[in-house]
Amino acid sequence: MALAGSTALRWGTRLPSPCPAALLLCRPAWLPAACERPYSSRGEEKFDMSMYPVESIRNFSIIAHVDHGKSTLADRLLEITGTISKTDHNKQVLDKLQVERERGITVKAQSASLFYNHEGINYLLNLIDTPGHVDFSYEVSRSLSACQGVILVVDANEGIQAQTVANFYLAFEAQLSIIPVINKIDLKNADPEKVEKQIEKLFDIPTNECIRISAKQGTNVEKVLQKVIEKIPPPQCKTADPLKALVFDSTFDHYRAVIANIALFGGEIAKGQKIVSAHTKKRYEVNEVGILTPNEQPTHKLYAGQVGYLIAGMKEVTEAQIGDTLFLYKQPVEPLPGFKSAKPMVFAGMYPIDQTEYNNLKSALERLTLNDSSVTVHRDSSLALGAGWRLGFLGLLHMEVFNQRLEQEYNMSVILTAPTVPYKAVLSSAKLIKEYGKDQITIINPAQFPDKFSVSEYLEPTVLGTIVTPHEYIGKIITLCQDRRAVQKDMLYIDENRVMLKYLFPLNEIVVDFYDALKSLSSGYASFDYEDAGYQSADLIKMDILLNGNPVEELATIIHNDKAHAAGKLLCERLKETIPRQLFEIAIQAAIGKKIIARETLKPYRKNVVAKCYGGDITRRMKLLRRQAEGKRLMRKIGNVEVPRDAFIRVLKRETDK
Amino acid sequence: APCPQWPYCRKRCSYCNFNTYVAPAVDEAAVRACLVREAQTLLRLSQVHSVTSVFFGGGTPSLASPGTVAAVLEAVAGAAHLPAGAEVTLEANPSSTSTSPLAGFRAAGVNRLSIGVQVRGALPAAAPAAPRDPIVTVLPPQSLDDAELRMLGREHTAAEARKAVEAARGLFPGRTSIDLLFGLPGQSRDAWAQRLEAALRLCDDHISLYQLTLERGTALAAQVRRGALPAPPQDLLADMYQTARNVLVATGFRHYEVSNFARKGALSTHNLSYWRADQYIGVGPGAHGRFVLRGEGGCSREARVQTLEPVAWMREVQSQGHSTRSRVVLSPLEQLEELLTLGLRTDEGITHERWGHFSPQLSLQAVFGEPGEARALQKEGWLVLDSGGLRCTWAGLAVLDSLLPDLLWQLQRV
């Protein structure tokens, strides 16, 4: 497969051209005949990476729908190549984050260098792991930029799923070699033949190219490695060229600061060299280079075509820009195309529960966003919640995962406001146009929603959703999609009982609970993926929630006119369950402008006093009361109504969490 | 005032989460010796000169023998002045209140009986304030309905309860208190009104009125959680409480504390001392106390808890004279918080004098008279701050737990 040329992808990400046109090989083909371990077991000696010229290097990713066995296959590949020892405990070795292991998903790309002898030649295989969820397609694109090929894993039982389709096109459009692998052939209901036919029909790959494996049992995994070597071309670049390194990922380590994952598109890099960032123009001295096995393993050097890490005294979170090109001091090169920043699809306000925690949260956010640069951060402040941020996420799972990582890795508890998507407004008011300096604005915060008299048109973001489902659920799924204001674009039987549907969705309709709804009405069988599809005109309004007539800023939502009544009613009902009774009656209302569209009434306490309070009960009682008194400080007061801060989050949680 | 504690019961009631033990054979002589020893030690440590009241609680202290009660009272009188009229209350269970042992308790010095369902965990001794007439507490008949009693896991029947109260009134006229429990799962407004009427026909001059609390870990709470029994709705509970308040006040009772009613001045001296934040000394397994250790040269009020488990408690009393498991010095703020929390439960509230005793520098007016939570609550009709002190209004008393966090929060900011 040809390697030149860059391709536009989803999320607006562009892949850099992996390397210029093929030229001479970097060094003579000195290939050791014996299969030696390239490093000693003492671990003191550094790897000699010069043993691996470009033509013995393969850089690849594994892509798959969630749960199709990507991480298990990666574990086996690490074992076969002796990268990790073979034990029963190797599960999700590359998923290092607690959240990944807990949820069984991959969020953060990881890489590992594998050494493998094939037909007497020692190969260096760099496996660049990719996330499996639709929210993280951006990470997939980034990982693919360092690869020349992919292993496309499909479950022999479930067949092609929505993400299989999405991932295939990512790889295809990047013009990467694709090795189709049908996994889980050991399962009772496995039907590899059928899956091969699906692959042929949808992806135009001949059935005989598929490798049938069981990653769990190790069946045919060796064959996969051989195919990687045969089918995936080596990177095409030269060590003789000046250094040109792509930063395709970075992590922040508390002790060693920034660790950048790099792919060398030319030259070599070693400790002590002076390098420059094309993006910041800052100069650094290289402290350490190495490969990931998958833990960091220092080496003397890294050479063209290789993938590894670099530590170079980058202290600030902004210094290791993902997509940046590094070159040698005084030997500038044409920077690689880099990446457009990820495009956030979901925005939410984030505030410390206690304002005294602002600075701690700020530094946690800075560190976490270094490891997850797809999160956008804008400072924001709210009368209600104090100083905070408006964060942009790739999707709701991304938001949840980010929040969970804040809690697990930084011990931070935060308030998140209702998620919203980036709406647009075409302004008609001369005053506003002057104020904004443009006639079209993006609204990421409902507080900024301009009223309809100063707007000629509102626009909402849309996505093209792909749903793959057994055909018996089609009816229910079509109803669900129509209920979500979606328009059908395509419907295709990928085999006799499996259907692929394409719908154009308003983004806000799928942001919160669509995936859960789809899963539950299809007993978990339907899969879903989506890609950006631009904006469309929409009848939008801003809905306020009032407590005794006072608006609750955190709950203001921008919503489609048709949905306002139902959403308002639901919010009011949930608030009634969440707000504690108080000494007076509380009217909970949903309003559009001055018009009330829903109302619930929370009755006052008529009795609230503990019956018994004698000698022995007092200590326990005082503890509770002090906690409540302390809680007063954290109460959000809306007019005279006191609302616990977490009430809003509980209200906004999806229905299934109730 | 000491609060000796008898931690044993014949059977555990379905709603009780107190520190009680069902032990078939209790070595009463050993327990008695330990109660005596601990009472002596703690009184010596406190250097209290005079004891206002003694309250025997549990467990089911009426299962102990009168000799034990007499021994403890003797020890108290030996260690401090116990005025002749000091209130000596015994909590009793209807099934353990046949006339003969009650007479024995009276002979032993008990002069007030509290008959009831739920017996409290810790029974501390009252403060060295102006001595008043003593009271005995007999166990209260929570209910006068057999079905309800069975649900509560009570050992006695309604008839037994009635008989027990009559016997007690015969022996302790004007000094018998009964417990009344409302909010039982499934109980209706009408059923409650009937119970109340029956209780009024039976009662003496003191009634404790309790809403049944479903304490975690009790059999009754588990049944409600499982849905085997219905949880009573909040509005119904509020109605029952208001009905009882109105009926009792109309029949001449003074509603002198959230859950306590008395007529003819039959207030419980002992319990008032808790609500006024006087000193009290807890004796026995799991008993709580609040007193200053003058005997050790101390000048700070301490919160003290005795060892919970009876066997360990006995061992420690035998080796050290007392078995205090935890002692915490209460800060001035903590003392004021307790005073506020407890004092507002009474109809007199917190007088300026009492507040001044704990806070000589900052008056009630200075803390709660300024604009803030208390002012707002006054305006809304829940609180009164005047020359008499700070107290709840009739309406405010029923929602005190909604007022306290605001008041404590205001106090903490001063």
From TrEMBL, chain A:
Pfam families: EFG_C, GTP_EFTU, GTP_EFTU_D2, LepA_C. CDD domains: EF4_II (cd03699), EF4_III (cd16260), LepA (cd01890), lepA_C (cd03709). Keywords: GTP-binding, Hydrolase, Membrane, Mitochondrion, Mitochondrion inner membrane, Nucleotide-binding. Belongs to the TRAFAC class translation factor GTPase superfamily. Classic translation factor GTPase family. LepA subfamily. The keyword Cell cycle does not apply. GO terms for molecular function: GTP binding; GTPase activity; mitochondrial ribosome binding. It catalyses: GTP + H2O = GDP + phosphate + H(+). NCBIfam families: lepA (TIGR01393), small_GTP (TIGR00231). SUPFAM superfamilies: EF-G C-terminal domain-like, P-loop containing nucleoside triphosphate hydrolases, Translation proteins. The lineage of its organism: Eukaryota, Metazoa, Chordata, Craniata, Vertebrata. GO terms for cellular component: mitochondrion. InterPro entries: EF-4 (IPR006297), EFG_III/V (IPR035647), EFG_V-like (IPR000640), EFTu-like_2 (IPR004161), G_TR_CS (IPR031157), LepA_C_sf (IPR038363), LepA_CTD (IPR013842), LepA_IV (IPR035654). GO terms for biological process: positive regulation of translation. Residues 55-236 form the Tr-type G domain. This is GUF1 factor. The keyword Cell membrane does not apply.
From TrEMBL, chain B:
Residues 1-254 form the Radical SAM core domain. GO terms for molecular function: 4 iron, 4 sulfur cluster binding; catalytic activity. CDD domains: Radical_SAM (cd01335). InterPro entries: Coproporphyrinogen-III_oxidase, Elp3/MiaA/NifB-like_rSAM, HemN_C, rSAM, rSAM_sf. This is RSAD1 protein. PROSITE patterns: RADICAL_SAM. One of its GO terms (cellular component) is mitochondrion. One of its GO terms (biological process) is porphyrin-containing compound biosynthetic process.
